[in-house]
Amino acid sequence: MQVNRIPILKLYNCLLVSIQFELDDKTALQFQEDLLKKIHATGASGVVIDLTSVEVIDSFIAKILGDVINMSKLMGAKVVLTGIQPAVAITLVELGIELQGVQTALDLEKGLEQLKLELGD
Amino acid sequence: MQVNRIPILKLYNCLLVSIQFELDDKTALQFQEDLLKKIHATGASGVVIDLTSVEVIDSFIAKILGDVINMSKLMGAKVVLTGIQPAVAITLVELGIELQGVQTALDLEKGLEQLKLELGD
């Protein structure tokens, strides 16, 4: 099976990712690896992951997402999740996955602005 | 066969697209449709298409790309192509596809700046 790869855009010192289709497990794992490699390669200090187009999330994908956020933090990059839809927020809380300490914002623009403020540029 | 879809990010009044894998014909056609719909839906006045990760391009994909740029212009959006690699530039010129009148820039940041200047914001 061909694994989809999620494009990761570099804009100044931030990486932008927009997830616009339902993630399957392999794609999510590939994304995790790709994002960490890209943080390393670019030396990005911030990451915005936009979930605006994600309408459903399951426990495995939620765990991967939580993991990649923690891993990115360990590597020194701040992560902001944006555009979490009502159904996704409900699922996350009901699954007990509250993504503790993860910053969120309403949309990509606000997420980037939040990062800019925090990174002080 | 599942068609890959290329995520299109909206940032302020621009759309950002980063093509990070070789496009097959179906994906290219799907991208054309998705981009035009997104321009319509968001009222974006600029589009940056980043080809940094594209190492090879064939005549069909080059034509689709040229077409989508012209279509976007017709809809009122300025398009900037960024990150065209040497091999892609060589192929385009050798195929006689010179993407006349298409603006280009070295990378995503410079493309966005060019658009901002032109759109006057």
From TrEMBL, chains A, B:
It comes from the Bacteria. Residues 15-115 form the STAS domain. Pfam families: STAS (PF01740). InterPro entries: Bact_StressResp_Reg, STAS_dom, STAS_dom_sf. SUPFAM superfamilies: SpoIIaa-like. This is RsbT antagonist protein RsbS. It comes from Aeribacillus alveayuensis.
